[in-house]
Amino acid sequence: MAKTTCESCGERVSFVTDEDADFLSCPECGREHCVTPHGASPTGQIPDEKQERFADLREWDEEVLG
Q1: Are 29 and 9 in contact (CB under 8 A)?
Q2: Which of 13, 16, 25, 38 is the most buried (most CB within 10 A)?
Q3: Which residues, at least 6 apart from 26, have a Cβ–Cβ distance to it below 8 Å?
Q4: What's residue 45's pLDDT?
Q5: What tens digit of pLDDT does each residue of 21-55 get?
Q6: pLDDT tier at 4 (50, 70, 90 boundaries)?
Q7: Strand, coil or helix: what is 46?
Q8: What is the pTM of this model?
Q9: CB of 57 within 8 A of CB of 63?
């Protein structure tokens, strides 16, 4: 089970799935969320910490691979 606050409607929602990754809609407003064993997030959104990690990896790629 993954819990999150839907950014579209502001409701606290819980998602239940048996899949490693699943796309489920908010029961209140219908906005689609990506649900994994690690949590749920609205589709099309990458959390800030992952964006920073991707930026670090791109810098490393440029330095190492040139």
Answers
A1: yes
A2: 13
A3: 6, 8, 9, 11, 13, 32, 33
A4: 66
A5: 888 898 889 988 888 888 887 877 667 777 788 88
A6: confident
A7: coil
A8: 0.55
A9: no
